[in-house]
Amino acid sequence: MIQTIALLSPIYITLFWGIIFLLQKKSDNPARWVLGLFLIFACFLYVSHAIFFSRLYHLYAFFESVYLYTGLTVYPLFYTYILKLTTLRFKSRRYLFHFLPGILFGIVSLLLTLILSPEQRIFYVKHILIDTNLKGINFSTLPGIKGWVFLLSRIVFVIQTIVYLILAIRLANQHNKTINHYFSNTEGKTMNWVRDVSIIAFVVSIAAIVFALMGRSYFIHHNLSLLGPSVFFTTIFFLVGYKGNMQRQIFEPLYEQEENNTNAESEESAENDLKSRLLKLFEQDKIYQVNDLRISTICESLLTNRTYISKLINDEFEMNFNEFVNKYRVEEAKQLLLSRENNKFTMEYIAQQAGFGSVASFSRVFKEIEGTTPGKYREKHSHKMD
Q1: 2-251 in CATH: which number?
Q2: How far is residue 294's CA from residue 305's CA, in Å, rounded to a whole number?
Q3: Domain ranges, ordered by start, for the chain
Q4: pTM score
Q5: I want to staple 333 with a disulfide (CB 3.0 to 4.6 A). Which of 168, 344, 354, 365 is the partner?
């Protein structure tokens, strides 16, 4: 009973989230659809485990090709998922080579299985995979060659784990930097969770390697030992599905803004004039109070393009657009916090008046700039109220 629960739990979770994502319209959210493929492939991995630990060795000998194919495809799929989230102009054909290792090892493994006799297939699973745990493989025999292919696939898997972890985190960091040049409110737009999911995926892989090094024979002869890895992997993949269900594709507006604001800065508008007009827009017109202020809005108001505005803010104020806007918003919030009239209003009201998207965003940004929360700031300076 315990073994059945341990074997089926990760299958149910990955299948559940995978079906939910794949049933959604692909054109509405292609990134989430790719995540669905990722989870379905993970499901097949755990189906392979279930067949193996159910001691269906002859069936597993055939199914191992599926195991190798899906195992070496999940990380490229995860990387594709991140690419879909962070770029609108994703060309699938350019990234097909990422999936070649899985296809290659899957085909080779299947061909070797077809060549082996029924007795050799059982010998391969029971002796090479279980009894010796890939140690002392005799490469002069067909079962030994199949064992060598399996071992080589594990090495490739470890390399994939490291490479795709680095690529995913790098993409997330680049994306976070980019949106800070476009949006004043980045809440719900940052990709910090991608880093968290990448680390989770890395932990999953390391755990899988550790469990493999312990030897499959240990888990076969100790049914209760399967419960620990099962709970761990089930929890991890539930979180991956939950995070994926909460996220939305947010990179597309960045391209729209860049394409819709391509008019060159007029020759008459000198840099100093542009700077003064920018400051007037913020200090007198208080455009920072616009809740979802984007750099495209500034460009339209000043009749210029994003490149000039972004460069001006970066060079003259040594900030990105997000930091520049939030500086004004925090100053506005400080005045409201110290005003006797506004002392009776909630933080929600002050956050809205200053231009923040939420109280959480207001508190986070205020603390980053002032080193304290808005509430503590008002208490500390209450004597300065009008």
Answers
A1: 1.20.1070
A2: 12
A3: 2-251, 255-384
A4: 0.71
A5: 354
